[in-house]
Amino acid sequence: MDQRLSLITLGVADLAAARTFYEAGLGWTPLDPLPEVVFYQLPGLALALFGLNDLAKDVGEPLPGPGGAITLAINGRSPAEVDATFDRAVAAGARPVKTPRAADWGGYSGYFADPDGHLWETAFNPRCEITPRGETLFGGQ
After folding, report:
1. 138: nearest Cα among 3, 27, 1
2. What is the pLDDT of residues 85-112, one digit of tens each?
3. 22-55 tens-digit pLDDT
4. Dist. CA 128–CA 35, nearest whole Å
5. How far is CA 19 from the centre of its chain?
6. How far apart, in whole angstroms, are the C-alpha atoms of residue 98 and residue 81?
7. pTM for the whole thing?
8. Are 20 and 30 in contact (CB under 8 A)?
9. SS3 assignment, position 53
10. Domain 7-138 CATH class label
């Protein structure tokens, strides 16, 4: 099997509010939304926002609350881009978790939580390349 990730789905309490945040806070444009799910095409994969109750019904069992021990990341091309992403997300309703700063690993990063508590890192990693299409390449791939 190929080493690939196709879709990340986040369960959200209020789909309309989550959609507003991702469009205003991150500037993303949705694909044709359905009543219970909204898809955003990203470079190489997609993100879906799925109403938590509808997602539980689709899965077939109750789901834990949002958040959990997972973080999602948006890599920027510079520390200034990291700051801009963080500031825009917070202005749109994200909870600041860790203001962007120099990181021990040689980059620059910070964290915010979306309105449903999903943790997002915004980071600049000098060892990554971000292609013109927006793909993040680690380790000179």
Report:
1. 3
2. 999 999 999 999 999 999 988 999 999 9
3. 999 999 999 987 888 999 999 988 999 998 888 8
4. 37
5. 12
6. 16
7. 0.84
8. no
9. helix
10. alpha beta
Amino acid at residue number 3? Q
Q: Report the C-alpha dihedral over residues 129, 131, 135, 137, rounded to 10 degrees.
A: -30
The 8-class DSSP code of residue 41 comes to E
Chain-centroid distance of CA 11 in Å reads: 13
Distance CA 115, CA 124 (A): 23
The letter for the amino acid at 15 is: L
Instruction: Give exposure, 112-122, as e/b (b: 16+ Cβ within 10 Å).
Output: bbbbbebbbbb
State the burial class of residue 65 (Cβ atoms within 10 Å of its Cβ: 0-12, 13-18, 19+).
exposed
> Residue 75's Cα: distance from chain center in Å?
10
Total H helices, total E strands in the chain? 3, 9
Tokens of 99: 């203001």
By C-alpha distance, which of 17, 85, 8 is closest to 46? 8
Q: How far apart are CA 130 and CA 76, in angstroms?
A: 8
Place of tokens 């019904």: 57
104 token code pair: 């021990």
